[in-house]
């Protein structure tokens, strides 16, 4: 017979089939076949001979699988469990033992072996297996626990106890010790529980173990034993092993038993032993404890403790101004609490203490020229002056402090001048106030000085003095737009429009002005409220200095808003002609024209504007490294050359399709 040759086949009927098969239909059929459950054939065993044949065949399958995958423990377990289900226990044990020869340290294998024996009530076999596995794998707690629980279920409490004792010789985890204690507790042996707890604490000393002992003693209402457990924990453990949660629970224990003094001493001991970074939660709990059981004795203890801490920190680093601020804040908070209850003598003593702290603090000048450090140091003088004026009720003392600080602090710290001038203002001494601000202008020359001084004189109604101050401000900062704006806003407040115009004219003529846009915007916004022609003149003048697209847009918008649509169009056309070679700016102006026509024009002008909008064409460009980059080209209908390019591009695109 000649071989089959596919090339000689000829299709007789080349018409399309009546029913077309799609990829979707093929996938749907495949999924439907997958979801159908494969029905296994049911095998009915009629007699013992067929049963033996079935068993032999099953054993052969298992043995063949094990020869291929000897180290697959799951197959061994299935094989052994199947034999056990057939009541063939000798065979099942043999299979388990063969599996243990393959992997003797597999916990899952031992567990299924033991569970199989227990399930079939082979007590002694299970006990023997437990003995073997706890000797082989003593660090796996699961076998110890199951062994002990197994004996407990059988009522063999002595055997269970001996198992626990063997387990404890390995010094297991905390959970194992607690399981032993719970077992003795179920047996009603409370004294044995205490002896186990003692061994547990000796072998695994920690806050957790001591707290469990406390909980146990509290359960049996042995308060003294629970307290001694807390105390022993503090004595035995190193301070590094103690944590704030332990002291909080100790203090709460004392509170529950109405020992407030004891709770207070616990909090103090905890705050003393623990680092500050590790005792934030303890300190918050101490504060809440204070609020609940507050008395003068506790307040004094806390104050003394914190005061000593600050003194120690200052002795180590006297230039740490944060510590000085915290120290002062502590003393002032004590004074605030004393105002309600204490006598005048005690209040006076506390005020003297605060003054001493301030004097000691300001005596520690910064040792380098770090400006940030000097600024921090200056606030000590400021707060000292505030305290003298408000708490000591002595404006004269506050004046002395400010004047002394001016001799020590750098001259360009404006806050001291400002606070001193405000103090003189409260004292009613305008002459000294003006003298201080005059010195500040001469020495400090900060912008804040001019603003504060002018604000004070304005509130006093001295308009001429304000003008002198603003004139000086502009003289010192001629190229700072803020000085000019401050002067302009002042004259605008007085409705002196002619002065405002002159100031604006002077300001816009400054070639070296920083941020001149702010001056122009202010000038134009002012003129919009007064004169249309002046606004137009300003826009034209501004366009002579700079032809930014933003100016054309604002100029044209102003014309449209005032009903001069034709003028607005001319402004936009001027910008379009200027940016004829810049496609992006030109397109922005055309879109702006469309927006203006939509708001202020009619349908015809809107359509005319839209016809001029550019079309974007994506063009690929090759770089030197042969990579292609997409460039966007704007094609404007107004440009005839570009229109031809667009038409050719569209024709080419149609041909490609």
Automatic annotation (TrEMBL):
GO biological process entries: spliceosomal complex assembly
Highest taxon, organism lineage: Eukaryota
Protein biosynthesis is among the record's keywords: no
Compartment list: Nucleus
Pfam annotation, one family: HAT_Syf1_CNRKL1_N
Keyword GTP-binding in annotation: no
Keywords: mRNA processing, mRNA splicing, Nucleus, Repeat, Spliceosome, TPR repeat
One GO CC term, this protein: post-mRNA release spliceosomal complex
Swiss-Prot/TrEMBL TPR repeat ranges: 73-106
Boundaries of every Pre-mRNA-splicing factor Syf1-like N-terminal HAT-repeats domain copy: 61-205
Gene3D superfamilies: Tetratricopeptide repeat domain
Family per record: Belongs to the crooked-neck family.
Name of the protein this chain belongs to: Crooked neck protein, putative
Organism: Theileria parva (East coast fever infection agent)
